[in-house]
Amino acid sequence: MRVSVLTFAMTALVMAPVAASAQERHAADEPALQEHARALTHGAHHVGVRLAWSNRVDARVREHGGEHEDATGFGVGLVGELPMWGPLELEWVGQVDRHGDALQLTEELCVKAPWHLSADVSVFLGAGGLLRQHSHGELLSGGVVGSAGGTYWLSEDTGVMVELEVIEDLALATREVEGIVTVMVRFDAQPPWTQAR
After folding, report:
1. Is the CB of residue 105 less than 8 Å from the CB of residue 77?
2. Tens of pLDDT, residues 73-132
């Protein structure tokens, strides 16, 4: 009996710091978990305006030893995010880009998986598809997009998102890398299906 009590006491002494550390980590994660729970319950949405710089490589031109004439472009767009099932988020982007004297309108629909490092900082990976309308050449094209980045919330409602996107335009056989900075605004918009009747 004395051995059992001694063993229990020593185990408690050893495990106390581990339990305290786990509790501290849980407390640090709590704001981020609460934020996502609030988003799922109350429909916290993110909207933003983004600026993009892009570099495009035309695979068909490169195969023949040439260079793409208008490889660099600039764009401005609107972003909307809303929570989905589990930790996932759905993002819609509408963006206008200029490459040389040509304009293109891009619409993206992506699923993003965020990791909340704290209540103010999160990183994410995303993937989805896109459709494009062009002012020159092909009227319509489509492809896939992958993204990685992070968001820092400067205040309760305003944040900055920095993102890197890789776009494969399957119809035009081009690959594009975009660096993006987005100013985000967070607001509660409770969907009708979550309102109390």
Report:
1. no
2. 899 999 999 888 778 889 999 999 987 778 889 999 999 999 989 888 999 999 999 998
Prediction pTM value: 0.69
* Other Cβ atoms within 10 Å of 151 Cβ, number: 22
Number of domains in the chain: 1
Domain of residue 56: give its range. Answer: 38-194
Burial 111-138 (b: 16+ CB within 10 A, else e): ebebebeebbebebebebebebebeeee
Distance CA 146, CA 53 (A): 16
Q: Is 174 within 8 Å of 59 (Cβ atoms)?
A: yes
For 147-168, the pLDDT digits (tens) are 999 999 998 889 999 999 999 9
CATH value at residue 93: 2.40.160.20
The position carrying tokens 């989805």 is 128
Residue at 138 is within a domain: yes
Distances (CA, A) of 153 to 42, 123, 185: 19, 12, 9
DSSP 3-state helix, strand, coil percentages of the chain (rounded to 5)?
Answer: 25, 55, 20
Q: Which of 51, 75, 38, 15 is nearest to 184 (CA)?
A: 51
Backbone angles phi, psi at 174, to 5 degrees: -120, 150
